[in-house]
Amino acid sequence: MGEKKINTADMNILTDVNFLVSVIVAIGEVANITGVPQRKIRYWDEKGYIEPVDKTATYRQYDYLNIKRIVLIKELLDEGFTLETAAKKVVERCAKVEEVFQRLKNQSS
């Protein structure tokens, strides 16, 4: 089987900090693009594994980093990890990514 290659346009989007910081998606769309049902997303939110952009809003919206967390948790669950273990692994994996994005955000301000 062939390996999926990332084309230059995809890489440009992934390195566009302004785009990534501005990505905010409603829970229904997050469910559609990740394949994780809204009910699970809400449960993960209640457990503190992910966090909506605005906790006081009447409907949940998620940013790029939380969508990434959702995808990673789903992948780890599919590999057989428990939810708690998957969430811990995602925290470890995302810590460095979040640090880099914060630095990039601070530089672009």
Automatic annotation (TrEMBL):
<dbReference type="InterPro" id="IPR000551">
    <property type="entry name" value="MerR-type_HTH_dom"/>
</dbReference>
<keyword id="KW-0805">Transcription regulation</keyword>
<dbReference type="GO" id="GO:0003677">
    <property type="term" value="F:DNA binding"/>
</dbReference>
<protein>
    <submittedName>
        <fullName>MerR HTH family regulatory protein</fullName>
    </submittedName>
</protein>
<dbReference type="Pfam" id="PF13411">
    <property type="entry name" value="MerR_1"/>
</dbReference>
<keyword id="KW-0238">DNA-binding</keyword>
<keyword id="KW-0678">Repressor</keyword>
<dbReference type="InterPro" id="IPR009061">
    <property type="entry name" value="DNA-bd_dom_put_sf"/>
</dbReference>
<dbReference type="GO" id="GO:0003700">
    <property type="term" value="F:DNA-binding transcription factor activity"/>
</dbReference>
<dbReference type="InterPro" id="IPR047057">
    <property type="entry name" value="MerR_fam"/>
</dbReference>
<keyword id="KW-0804">Transcription</keyword>
<feature type="domain" description="HTH merR-type">
    <location>
        <begin position="27"/>
        <end position="92"/>
    </location>
</feature>
